Amino acid sequence: QKEVEQNSGPLSVPEGAIASLNCTYSDRGSQSFFWYRQYSGKSPELIMSIYSNGDKEDGRFTAQLNKASQYVSLLIRDSQPSDSATYLCAVNTVGSGSARQLTFGSGTQLTVLP
Amino acid sequence: DTEVTQTPKHLVMGMTNKKSLKCEQHMGHRAMYWYKQKAKKPPELMFVYSYEKLSINESVPSRFSPECPNSSLLNLHLHALQPEDSALYLCASSHAGQNTEAFFGQGTRLTVV
């Protein structure tokens, strides 16, 4: 069973602070990693993808990947109330029949307090 | 354009009804997915189509029947569902390959009465 683990939270941060979300995965063969944001009642929205060790920045978001430690994280700088959502870590793994599939963590609920 | 379109947005059906969910994308993606999501849970994979062929069926009950008529369309046929099947049904698509991003439709909120 290939697993993706996240701190389920909830996580609360004040407006303007840095929110740090963490994820670990069990499949050492995984090559691609994603963060999705999901507002209540809506579908997941892709916000970051990362494939190589190190940091990847996009605006206020930074994804970090460490394949040796099987660890991926998402930092949100200058957090805004509009960032309040559930953040899903997803890892591309090999499923049954050798087809690739996204395996999701349980999600971290983030609340940014004004 | 990263749009995946699902219809209908909401569906209420009885346990003896037959209905279908539809998903469409025009991004040239050759992998399409059905996920089921219950409240406060992550999406749970149901089916994967790769190049219009069913490549993953995650032991889904036969009352759910997927169909991929062409590279842009994905259907999920529903028959004799149970109230516990009420959930948000999500379609997603991606390029078929390893390092590829998947994009989700807005989902169909299904209620079985």
In terms of quaternary structure, the protein is heterodimer
Q: How far is it from the N-terminal to the C-terminal residue of chain A, by CA?
A: 40 Å
CA radius of gyration of chain A is 14 Å
Total strands of chain A: the figure is 11
Overall radius of gyration of chain B: 13 Å
Shape of chain A: globular
Q: What is the structural class of chain B?
A: mainly beta
Percentage of residues in DSSP E strands of chain B: over 45%
The structure class of chain A reads: mainly beta
Biggest interface, chains and residues, is: A-B, 26 and 27 residues
Instruction: Please give the count of helices of chain B.
Output: 0
β-sheet strand percentage of chain A = over 45%
Low-confidence stretches of chain B: none
- Residues in helix, % of chain A: under 10%
Description of the molecule:
The complex is a heterodimer of chains A (114) and B (113). Chain A has no helices and eleven strands. Chain A has strands at 4-6, 11-14, 19-25, 33-38, 45-50, 54-58, 61-66, 71-76, 85-94, 100-104, 108-113. The model of chain A has no long low-confidence stretch (mean pLDDT 93). The model of chain B has no long low-confidence stretch (mean pLDDT 94). In chain B, a hairpin with a 2-residue loop joins strand 7 and strand 8 (73-79). In chain B, strands 2, 4, 5, 6, 9, 10 and 11 form a seven-stranded mixed beta sheet that branches. In chain B, strands 1-3-8-7 form a four-stranded antiparallel beta sheet, with no helix packed on it. Chain A binds chain B through residues 31-32, 34, 36, 42-46, 49, 51, 88, 90, 92, 95-97, 99-107, and chain B through 2, 31, 33, 41-43, 45, 48, 50, 55-56, 58, 88, 90, 92, 96-107.
